[in-house]
Write a structure and sequence with these properties.
The chain has 1444 residues and is mostly beta strands. It has a five-stranded mixed sheet with strand order 85-86-87-1-88. The protein has a five-stranded mixed sheet with strand order 18-19-20-21-22.
Length: 1444
């Protein structure tokens, strides 16, 4: 009875595709991350050499030397650069939508359907179990909608009893370039064909191909979209059919790869196959037995015709890449060669290493000096005109493939590497997918490094001449010139290239080779590569360690950060090859504290940058009209801080302070009056000329030196009442006030900076009781497209009945939008949404509309704060884009998935109930620039930020520490774009968001420290607070000639292109600044298999115990010699640090080393209570103790089966679990009097187990094991159960499929309790007694970068949550039409093993908040509890790791 919850989404990109998806003219990138589908759009931004303040650069004379450190260098660059200051263009990705799918994505393809809702193309998504989903974009939702699902996993398709199962075969999806059909190869030799309907004229007449000719002209595109909305409710596809490949041709026995080709009238595909299985060991018998065949399909007759067949191809070909015009034909990739076959069957090839000659007799051009390995390489079109291709090798290096054209036919191929200084090594590891993005960028997706947008620029002759003039700068600033090239290409060269083509690039290279700057890149012709953007990736997670969270080089920093650092941090070893890194993860934001001081009386804080008064108001107005919004203000640092205080004797005052670089001091001698009472809100109006202070009974306006300019009292002339102000909102030039009689007051700042009330003409404004609201300056035109001024201030009001009203200021005569149903928080909020009368409502305490995002992309969101502080976030969208449509019918709000639950909901809820105005002291704060983010801060008992970047959805992250009373942005010289806040204990902190940390992408705080080498493990040494990582680099493998006398031929071997082998290193990393302070290189051939920190007994005499780093290695000298093992035991000792590097005061010291003659050391664990270690060495497990002389004495052993993949011990108990790569799981016990190991029980059947761990749950002991098919098996050790044969068999309780997430580590962690909303129950005594039993949960990390939790549940919890999950599965929308229940069942598990008590899928439970309050109450009612109890159960699942 467990629940599986994903804490972070997968980050490894497995597939990518570029297509116009959201509309006919859009340029979208679809990225698949195993089970996550993301849709991006591209945005071109400029990296400017001049200062970014000059926003209106076209109208003003631009001077490159103003405000710029590199002004001298900038002004050196030739004359024409002055005309265009925004030199470098960068293509950035902006996330449109993302979906977690109940399936493992194996392929993506684009299909142009006859009609689509958006006018864009359809997307065909292939899944692991031979399923296909056709989806399109629905602009009215907005989101993806599923058109059809196609299943090919039925048993009758797998007729022959010896055919391999679906799981053992790779499914390949390929689509015809003209979208006439798609083909899915599944099983061993089955081909499913899905025909798609196209306009007849389109097939016969229209020879426009978007891949070749670029985007279709606008007039044609529009007519297509208009015709697309057909009255016939017809499916875009015809019925599909399955062909056996052997019926196409009897020789297609072992199909390798197939793809549809360009430039054929009928759908035509090329397929690579062989009659025999290829094998490198049988080359002397089987050579050149591959065949490439091209078939044309007749979709009506369901038949095919063979067009051409080329036989005698090399055995190592593995992929077919179709090429569009002007080259045409197909490119075949092998591990040692590239072969092009044109439409007539003529072949040209190139050998890229010396082995091509040895394994084939096929005629190839010899370029073996390139020494390239093409395994795992990806190839994509680079230039449409010349047909050049970019090759990215498995190592991440870049090469360029050119075709030598003789008219229309290809006469030869040539490959050239890109040098490192031309960006040839910017990709650190192998890539999983590549697709073109714009005309000079490609998207490179990787499973083991950050995915990136890779752009290139071309060097033209004109630029070369100019560069020879500025060689001085070239030495000084390479990047500057890269940016110049990039833009030069974008703006000038493209038109010429389209007219004249590139010509063969090799001639260009020699022509350009004269200038000095070109000689560097002459090998790669004229391309220079740069990274434009990247998607963060923490996959694969190889190993994890937990360490103390607070490390500081100085003691004062440690004191400052007290209270805002977590207890532990999770450090993961992530990445492969040169992308190896350490990822440091925290659940909450841990601010970087710049200053800390006691400020117990502070309640609210407001900082502002007011302008000093000027003589004439004229300049200000002019400046305001030229520079919109806050640009002028942002240029200034904050000058004043107003603090609202509650003194010990109960009086309330306000004080003003002048800000210094990281501190503040009291300001005297101004007309600011502290005794006027507490401040409700403060800010600036009149473009920063007026400081406005809102008090309870009046509004005061000051000039920039705090001279009192105006007092606006809250006095009603008609009734004589003086309503008190409870909250306020600013948006230049307007001010909105809410008063305690539920009325509002709107004031405007006129040209003389005087505040005047705006008449409330609409009777509804006076009659309705208002609860809360805000002002928002609409710069994007989402809410109001009619006014062309560019800036419209919108007023959002929430009535006490729970309706949302929107007014366009200054017009208060009529609301432009009314949505009555806001209090029901529906998934999509529209003006006509209506819930049932009896429906449950959400108690909304506050509402704010603000921009969320970063520098690349910002957009407005509506954020609702209910009484429990579980925020609801809505994204506004327009269903119709025409500006004539009224707002009420076009504007809707889409609820964003937000699983974050508040930490202390009880604090907030109690405050709201007792005293509504009292809660208003802590309103949500919108901050336009906090460390580069536009964000919203939620104060109170669960302080948190709502953060979003261009490449993520909005995420809510808690701020580490106690509840927060007052908070404001803080932008000074010493604290750039930071914030100041006071917590409930009265401590004020001036702080910033931590540097080099990402938050929104994963929903947790992530810092990545690059190591530049492949990483294999990480361990934390708590005594010295250091981390030890195991890394390796690749070196050439030399045969061990001197050791082996049985192979005399080894001594004579002379080869130049050698295989590679890992060279292992141990690195000591100091977390003060995450630098490597000591490195130990191990012997050649020695590979680190495992690394752990163990508490060992280091002396038999004194029984002293010490934390030691134990490293298990394998010595592998090739497949002919037996593998040996070694155990190294290291201690971390203090030494004298290097000069100027105080952190280098520790070193690794070897204290013991043991050689194992047979088998590598695969796993290590602590065992028992006496400080011994348990080591798996080959097919034995031994308990060893450390002796004084540095040897490791074995005291007990146990014979194992084949290969031990994991050993875990239940700490201190002697019970341990062994996982075997073939035989499944064993549970054993170890006793110390006498020393002995005993086998207790084993799994009932053989399984390929990768990871296993013990999970105690109360008095029961469970074994959780993960197999190589990504299934989680839950077994129980219960000797009293009759079926267990006195415990000899582990009882198989359940199997849970993880999809494509292969677990790489399992760690048992203690579980913390989450705060609850519910009152204590009558049986509280029993609960308190149960609470003394420690609870545990299991943290799993996976190869896809996903971190998840497996939490045990009590019987009552399990019943509640399992009923809830089945109701949610039936209620919620599931993207791509997939079934979450089927996804979690292992297809190959026998019936008896699946078990009725399945693991609950937490990904479904986390979508609980997506429902509206009405549906939530209904679903909870069906479960038999109320919505608060459901919330509590979910909070308990999520809040188990309170110390991270």
């Amino acid at each position: 009875m467990q629940c599986y919850t994903e804490l972070t989404p997968p980050t490894a990109v497995t597939h990518s595709l570029n297509l116009p998806f959201i509309s006919a003219s859009a340029n979208n990138l679809v990225v698949a991350k195993t089970s996550l589908l993301q849709i991006f759009t591209t945005k071109i931004t400029s990296i400017e050499i001049e200062s970014p303040q000059n926003d209106q650069k076209q109208n003003e004379k631009w001077d490159p030397t103003i405000n710029h450190g590199d002004g001298l260098e900038a002004s050196f660059i030739g004359g024409d650069s002055l005309l265009r200051p925004d030199r470098a263009k960068r293509t950035k990705l902006v996330l449109v939508a993302e979906y977690t799918l109940s399936g493992t994505i194996t392929s993506l393809a684009r299909i142009k359907t006859v009609s689509s809702k958006s006018g864009g193309e359809g997307l065909l998504v292939g899944f692991r179990d031979a399923k296909l989903s056709l989806v399109e974009w629905d602009p009215t939702r907005p989101g993806i909608s599923t058109i059809s699902i196609h299943y090919y996993e039925q048993d009758d398709l797998q007729r022959s009893p010896w055919a391999p199962s679906l799981k053992e075969c790779t499914n390949e999806l390929t689509a015809d370039p003209r979208s006439r059909c798609a083909a899915l190869k599944f099983g061993g030799r089955n081909l499913a064909i899905i025909p798609f309907k196209q306009d007849d004229e389109d097939v016969n007449m229209d020879d426009w191909d978007e891949d070749i000719d670029g985007p279709r002209p606008a007039d044609q595109a529009i007519s297509k979209a208009a015709n697309g909305v057909s009255s016939k409710e017809d499916t875009p596809y015809s019925s599909s059919f399955v062909l056996r490949l052997a019926t196409l041709d009897p020789n297609l026995i072992n199909p390798i790869h197939l793809a549809f080709l360009y430039e054929y009238r009928e759908p035509t595909f090329g397929i690579l196959s062989s009659t025999q299985m290829p094998a490198s060991s049988l080359l002397f018998e089987r050579r050149d037995h591959m065949t490439y065949m091209v078939f044309t399909l007749d979709l009506h007759q369901k038949a095919s015709t063979t067009i051409l067949s080329v036989s005698g191809l090399p055995y190592d070909l593995f992929e077919v890449i179709p090429l569009p015009a002007p080259v045409g034909g197909a490119l075949l990739i092998g591990t040692n060669e590239l072969i092009h076959i044109d439409q007539a069957g003529k072949a040209n090839g190139v050998a890229v290493n010396v082995y091509a000659k040895q394994c084939t007799s096929f005629s190839l051009v010899d370029q073996s000096d390139l020494q390239m390995r093409l395994e795992g390489s990806k190839i994509e079109q680079l230039s449409i005109q010349s047909g050049e291709m970019i090759i990215i090798l498995h190592s991440g290096e870049i090469a360029i493939l050119s075709f030598h054209m003789d008219g229309r036919s290809v006469s030869g191929l040539s490959v050239r590497r890109v040098s490192a200084d031309a960006g040839g090594s910017v990709i650190p590891a192998s890539i999983s997918s590549i697709c073109s993005l714009t005309n000079n960028t490609v998207f490179v997706g990787s499973e083991s490094a950050d995915s990136m947008v890779l752009g290139w620029s071309r060097k033209s002759n004109q630029l070369s001449r100019r560069k020879s003039r500025v060689e001085v700068i070239e030495e000084a600033d390479d990047d500057l010139l890269d940016e110049l090239d990039d833009d030069e290409d974008d703006d000038d060269d493209d038109a010429d290239d389209d007219l004249y083509g590139d010509g063969p690039s090799t001639t260009q290279a020699s022509a350009n080779g004269i200038a000095k700057s070109e000689t560097v890149n002459s090998k790669a012709g004229d391309y220079v590569f740069h990274i434009h953007d990247s998607l963060v990736n923490i996959a694969p997670i190889v190993d994890i360690a937990f360490g103390n969270a607070s490390f500081f080089s100085k003691d004062e920093d440690r004191a400052d950060s007290e209270g805002v650092t977590g207890d532990l941090e999770l450090v993961a070893a992530v990445g492969k090859q040169k992308a190896g890194a350490l990822a440091i993860l925290h659940q909450n934001i841990q601010p970087k504290v710049v200053g800390r001081f006691g400020f117990p009386e502070a309640r609210g804080i407001w900082t502002m940058s007011a302008k000093r008064p000027t003589e004439k108001g004229l300049e200000v107005n002019k400046e305001k009209s030229v520079i919109g919004g806050d640009y002028a203000i942002d240029a200034q640092y904050d000058r004043f801080m107003i603090v609202s205080k509650a003194l010990a004797d109960g009086t309330e005052t306000s004080d003003v302070y002048a800000l210094t670089s990281a501190n503040f001091e009291a300001l005297a001698g101004t007309e600011f009056e502290p005794a006027a009472g507490s401040t409700i809100e403060a800010g600036t109006l009149g473009n920063g000329m007026r400081v406005i202070q809102v008090l309870k009974s009046e509004v005061r306006s000051y000039d920039g030196d705090l001279g009192l300019a105006q007092i606006l009292p809250m006095y009603d002339d008609d009734t004589g009442a003086e309503p008190q102000i409870v909250s306020a909102s600013f948006a230049d030039p307007y001010l909105l006030l809410f008063r305690d009689d539920a009325s509002i007051f709107v004031a405007q700042c006129d040209d003389n900076n005087e505040l005047e009330e705006i008449e409330r003409e609409d009777d509804a404004l006076l009659a309705t009781k208002w609860l809360t609201g805000c002002l928002y300056t609409d710069t994007t035109g989402v809410f109001d497209k009619n006014q062309e001024s560019g800036e419209n201030v919108m007023m959002f009001l929430l009535s006490t009945t729970g309706a949302l009203y929107i007014y366009a200021l200054p017009d208060l005569s009529k609301a432009v939008y009314i949505a009555e149903g806001l209090c029901f928080v529906p998934p999509v909020l529209s003006a006509d949404y209506a819930a049932r009368r009896s429906a449950a409502r959400e108690t909304i305490a506050e509402l704010i509309v603000a921009d969320l995002g970063d520098e690349t992309s910002k957009s407005p969101y509506l954020i609702l704060r209910p009484s429990t502080d579980d925020l609801t976030i809505y994204e506004p969208f327009r269903t119709r884009s025409e500006s004539t449509v009224p707002l009420s019918s076009a504007l809707q709000f889409l609820k964003i998935h937000n699983p974050h639950l508040a930490k202390n909901p009880d604090v907030s809820a109690i405050e709201t109930e007792d005293d509504v105005p009292g809660n208003r002291n802590e309103p949500m704060r919108a901050i336009s620039n906090l460390g580069g983010y536009s964000t919203v801060f939620l104060p109170g008992g669960s302080p948190s930020f709502v953060l979003k970047t261009a490449k993520s959805t909005p995420k809510v992250l808690s701020l580490q520490g106690l509840g927060v009373r007052g908070m404001s942005s803080f932008h000074t010289e010493g604290c750039d774009r930071g914030f100041i806040y006071t917590d409930v204990e009265g401590v004020a902190r001036v702080s910033q968001l931590p540097q080099d940390t990402t938050f929104a992408e994963l929903g947790v705080s992530l810092q990545k420290v690059e190591l530049g080498e492949e990483v294999h493990g990480v361990a934390y040494h708590s005594a010295t607070e250091c981390y030890v990582t195991a890394t390796s680099t690749l070196v050439d493998f030399e045969l061990p000639k001197e050791e082996d006398h049985h192979h005399p031929s080894w001594a004579k071997e002379e080869i130049t292109f050698k295989p590679t082998m890992e060279q292992s290193h141990l690195k000591l990393v100091n977390p003060v600044n995450w630098s490597v302070i000591h490195e130990v290189e191990l012997d050649p051939f020695e590979v680190i298999m495992c690394i752990k920190t163990l508490n060992l007994e280091v002396s038999e005499i004194t029984n002293e115990r010490r934390q030691c780093i134990v490293v298990g290695t394998g010595v592998s000298k090739g497949e002919d010699l037996a593998i040996k093992g070694r155990i190294h035991v290291y201690d971390v000792v203090s030494v004298v640090p290097e000069l100027d590097r105080p952190e280098t005061n520790k070193r690794l010291k070897l204290i013991a080393k043991e050689e194992i003659a047979r088998g590598a050391i695969t796993c290590i664990s602590e065992i028992g209570t006496q400080g011994f270690m348990l080591v798996s060495q080959g097919q034995k497990c031994m308990v060893r103790g450390l002796k004084e002389d540095g040897t490791l004495l074995p005291v007990a052993f146990m014979d194992m089966n084949c290969y031990v993949t994991s050993i875990k011990e239940l700490r201190g108990s002697g019970i341990c679990v062994f996982a075997d790569a073939i035989k499944g799981v064993w549970v054993a016990g170890y006793t110390e009097e006498p020393y002995k190991m005993m086998l207790f029980g084993k799994s009932a059947k053989n399984m390929e187990i990768m990871q296993a761990d013990l999970l105690p749950d109360g008095k029961e002991l469970y074994v959780v094991a993960a197999d190589s098919d990504c299934n989680l098996h839950i077994m129980q050790f219960d000797p009293e159960h009759p079926k267990s044969l006195q415990g000899h068999l582990l009882l198989h309780r359940s199997t849970f499929a993880l999809g494509g997430h292969l677990p790489t580590s399992m760690t048992v962690l203690p579980r913390t309790k989450a705060a609850t909303l519910l009152p204590p129950s009558p049986d509280a005594m029993d609960t308190a007694a149960e609470a003394t039993i420690p609870e545990y949960e299991l943290l799993l990390t996976s190869s896809t970068g996903c971190i998840s939790l497996l939490s045990p549940l009590s019987e009552a919890q399990y019943r509640r949550l399992s009923t809830l999950s089945s109701h949610l599965i039936n209620t919620l929308y599931h993207a791509c039409g997939l079934n979450p229940r089927a996804y979690r069942i292992d297809k190959d598990a026998p019936e008896g093993m699946v078990g009725s008590r399945t693991v609950i899928d937490g990904t479904i439970l986390m979508r609980w908040m997506e429902l509206g309050s009405q549906r939530r109450a209904e679903v909870a009612g069906r479960v038999g509890i109320d919505a608060e109890e459901v919330r509590d159960d979910l909070a308990a699942l999520m809040g188990g790791l309170g110390y991270l």
